[in-house]
Here is the input.
Amino acid sequence: MRQLADALGGNGAGPRLSADYRSRGWWSPDLLDELVLDTRGHRGRRAALVGDGRVLTGFELDAAVSGCAARLARCGTRPGENVLVQLPNQPQLVILVLALIRLGARPVLAPPTLREHELAPVLSSVRPAAMAVPVRQARFDHLRFAEELRERHPFVRSLLVSGGVDPARGHLDLDEFAAAEEAAPVAGGPRRPSDTALFLLSSGTTGAPKPIPRTHEAFGHVIRASAAASALTPDSVYLAVLPVTHSFAFGHPGILGALVHGGKAVLGAPGDPAGAMALIERERVTHCALTPAVARQWLTVHAASHGPDLSSLEVLQVGGARLDEQTARQLGDAFGCRIQQVYGMSEGLLNFSRLDDPPEVVFSTQGRPVSPGDETLVVDGRGRPVADGETGELLARGPGVITAYHGDTDTASFTSDGFYRTGDLVHRRPSGDFVVVGRVKDVINRGGEKIPAGELEALVQRHPGVRAAAAVPMPHRVLGETVCLYVVDGEEGSATLREIRRFLEDCGLAPFKLPESVVRVPALPLTGTGKIDKKRLREDIANRVEAEREVSP
Ligand code: AMP
Here is the structure.
């Protein structure tokens, strides 16, 4: 099906729209690695990638990518194969991803926080020939985890490992693969701009993350359009402190946006605001992307520190979850730079507030589409467009937006004429700017990481101490939302928060999805139609949190 869609016209947009996108120049014939690694003129001699104590110029990065591609080919990686990449922010990640693309193989970018519960369906769907992982990640034995996954999914032939390889276990040394500094001929297959260059993962609204195929031409468009809205230039220095395996820091515009413009990409560690600020000073960072939760942490750390000189910072982009107006204003004041709201999704629709928008627009809206080709509709429950100012679900179609997931799963996420249903409730201002007011989908947004409520409920109900469960967002000062579970005790007794967390971990659920609070109730409230009344539960937990804050502010 995907091959058919590719043959018909790239993004699956159909021949008419595809021809239109190409004739207007929204889809250019560039291949992604060539777009990103253009070393013409002075660009090749300037620093392009910084991380883990390594500095690579454009020429060195290009050579490392070719060297890595040649080694991958020698070890049997073939064009058309998929490789799951679950690495932290380090140069090896960038080199490997671009090398796979150069080879015509397809990286599947998976955030390092995902565990077996999320990854097993992804593996079954894309059947990767290899997985790239670090030996360890904080206290998590990532290599052992990958070995266990490989045992259960024998189509994974090899493990590419960073951080110390034991040759006796037959793993491939990613650090060595990515260290090559000489250009080498690449035995890749023929590639077309309409081919899938890589896969991102959806944040999963109903359960497992879904692979999102991104063609060279559609993803190239997204990078170029978002980089232009971010005013990236050859003098820009982009700092990635969100995981680069997620689209925001990767290509929206992320590190690839910086590289496309001949700028420099700096890789920082997530969860270390003080370290990030030291990097801003050292590398003279101009652009950085944060979630609102991380932005709040930055504000706290910044207020307590007198140190680093952050005067190089020009733009702080904030997205992934709704940024409240107060935090937006505080950020602008504290960091003395422009704030840019980013409301987007890995499926490809990107809305940015513009850098020359008046403060009121920047602080209180989530911006408007960056692509001139994006068509958006705000519709009611029956799919009928609503007037500006009225709330409805946002639908989108355009040169950067996908029209199908890999394998054509979840066709319900698309309308018959190719619009993607975002599942977000918004209203549009007459200026075209969107304000995100809620969501149709039942997802908890924990500091930008999405947790499908249904997935959690189905798992926790397997615990003998739980008869019924409902997961709802609980207001949190820094993260915005965390998970609260309302549970009805099972026949065989009850379960504490600790027991539930341990049980879910043992089920292989990603740690960020674990509940922070459990409320035991005799029965879950129901709506008139017999559904769990989540609205009531959301109100209930918000009231409880508010009451607690009053007691201990
Ligand atoms: P992801 O694909 O993981 O980037 O998640 C996309 C989803 O995150 C969107 O559909 C929204 O629900 C949410 N989201 C992203 N940016 C914002 C924002 N600026 N404001 C509110 N929600 C957002």
Summary: The chain is about 35% helix and 25% strand. The domain at 1-8+373-441 is CATH 2.30.38.10 (Luciferase; domain 3).
